[in-house]
Predict the structure.
Amino acid sequence: MKALALPRLAALAASLLLAAPALAAPRIAVSISQLREVVETRDGVRTTRMVPATSVTPGDVIEYVLAYENRGDAVAKDANIDDPIPKGTTYVAGTATGEGAEITFSADGGRTFAPAVRLTWELRLPSGAVEKRVATPAEYTHVRFTLKSIPPGAKGKVAFRVEVD
Amino acid sequence: MRTTVAAALRGALALSTLALALAAAQAAASTAANTTITNTATVSFNDAGGVAQTPVTASASVTVTLVPSAVVLSSPPDQTIAQGTSATLTYTITATANGPDTYSLASAATPSANISGVTVTLPGSVSLGGTTLAADAVAGATSVTVPYDGVAGGSVNGIGDGDTIVIGGNAYVVAAGGVAKDAGANTATITLTSAITGATVAAGTIVGERATFTATVPSGTISAGGSGTQTVSTTATSATAPNPATTQATPTVITVNRPSLTVTKTVSTDGGATFAATGTAPPGTSLVYRVVASNTGATDATSVAFTDVIPAYLTYVPGSGRYATSSATGYAAATGLTEGAGGYGYTAGTATVAWDPGGATGTIAGGGELVLYYRATIN
């Protein structure tokens, strides 16, 4: 009986899936939290910890944590989390992290993205020749986290840090 | 081959120059207090079938706080004043902070050993605006862009109409109605009464307000000698912890001079030709007395007045009073004084000759003299 029942269940599941496409959709929610690094020296031991930031001073490092979640009932594909480096801040090299995310940067206002080591910009030399330079982290205008697939119910976090000019 | 090497070197040079320029710009870059830094993330994604879905966004913002910074305070030049007057020192104070702040002012005068101490009068505090450039200030431009400070009004971070602000080391004046705010763009525009001069000033450079204030320093009273000094030092301290302070680099030395009078009295037995401290003459001789007031100080002696009591056995000769402004001027050439006028007169009851000319005549400049002559006859 059990062996017979299985195909029926599978058929039922298949019929549900067939009915679903009209309704099922990915629904992505995203939130940002901003943290500020606080350096404390207690008993001669220097420690740093992150606290929620509401105000900052020039030179402070802000960590932006972007939390995403797929609250829909279908997979989200090729999700790009784009974040312009806020005006008045500078990206801190090597601080972009995100499990399962491909991280690319833009140095041209978000028109093109490339991995950090391959991000270039053009320099016109006095001789008239044009050379490609690798962009420095201070020149990054955008950071992009690409997630190939976010299944329903999946959630995660990506993060990066900037220094306040 | 050589050409290639040269090109490579040029390229390397250009890169290192650029790297230096970038490093310098970053070191100086700052963001104004009260600036809101907003981070907006956008997530774009597709469904399983590859159809693009409506992107979602989230944003978060922080506000930049004031980083107090010591002002730049001028050192007013040294001055020389007369005792009984005051010196007025004009200071220039320039903010170097990323936002508005109040600076308390304190000033002390250190007296030399021969002069009394004094209290310097100056404003208790001065408030100066401050911001940063949100975009490069280009030479020739008559306006600069700074971050929006989050509030409406005619001034941005304490900088408003008519204020003097320093951009890249040069001072400019904010035009009337010169502050225009754009909350949407998160910027404010400050229009100046003159164009930016010199090189382009990089975004992130601090723009500080400059103001002047005066300190009044009384002379004090000299106890010995003709002059003394008051050495003045003024400090401006930020009201914001950790309260950075600036003291004027070079104290201002105020030299105080006072008049110093000496009096000599001589007599002539030959009608005013020669004068000496002593002499001999028979009864009936008309003596000429000479009283010389000399100002050996470096400053005016004012309201100089003479009184001289005629000794016994002498009779004052009415109308004999004369004066001169130098002892080189003899009795014959001296200017006549009118009995009972111009502060001159003889009081018989006390046998006193008195002269209080007042005004310009009663003032003896430093190094000058005032001479009084009169005659008396030996009984």
In short: The two ends of chain A are 71 Å apart (CA to CA). Chain A touches chain B through 49 residues (CB under 8 Å). The helical segments of chain A are 2-19.
